[in-house]
Write a structure and sequence with these properties.
The protein has two domains: 1-84, no CATH class; 88-164, no CATH class. The protein starts with 10 loop residues before the first helix and ends with a helix. By secondary structure, it is an all-alpha fold. 67% of the residues lie in helices and 0% in strands. It contains seven helices and no strands.
Length: 164
């Protein structure tokens, strides 16, 4: 627990950091920040499928971002105390009382729907919400509104209808 007793930083510091990275990527390399395309770059290393042979997936600069995400998660885990895997799903457990197999199915379905939505929108929430909105792209506005509406609808269905 190296950094356990430190006060958390204000959220605006992270926002300013994301803005600085986004502006630097745009100004220096005309690059867009987005995690889903980074995942595609990662998959392009292992797959010979034509989908992964697109020119925008050949630079592999997003792999450094992915490495930073993984290293940041590991560093956070190490500095915040002992870590152990858990099946605890918080409010989902208290409301739905799912067994392990049902939780796996629930999260798999959620991940699958998220992936389909990401491909339908032509990018992920970070790409559209941070980069696309900063560039005032109409498609990103529509995508972010769709992401938000889907989240609000799902949360209300879950907590008010399925498991009140």
């Amino acid at each position: 627990m190296l950094l356990h007793d430190l006060e958390p930083w204000h959220f605006a510091i992270a926002g300013a950091g994301i803005a600085a990275i986004t502006l630097t990527l745009q100004a220096v390399g005309n690059r867009a920040l987005g995690v889903s395309t980074g995942l595609e770059e990662f998959c392009s290393l292992a797959s010979k499928a034509p989908y992964f042979a697109r020119p925008e997936l050949r630079s592999h600069w997003r792999l450094v971002m992915f490495a930073g995400l993984v290293c940041g998660g590991v560093l956070s885990s190490i500095t915040s105390g002992p870590w152990q895997p858990t099946w605890n799903a918080g409010m989902l457990d208290t409301r739905l009382h799912l067994d392990h197999a049902s939780k796996i199915a629930w999260f798999f379905a959620g991940g699958l729907l998220t992936g389909v939505g990401t491909r339908m929108a032509g990018g992920c929430t970070s790409g559209h919400g941070i980069y696309g909105m900063a560039r005032m792209q109409p498609g990103s506005l529509v995508s972010v509104l769709a992401f938000m509406a889907s989240g609000i609808l799902t949360a209300n269905l879950l907590w008010r209808v399925i498991a009140p």
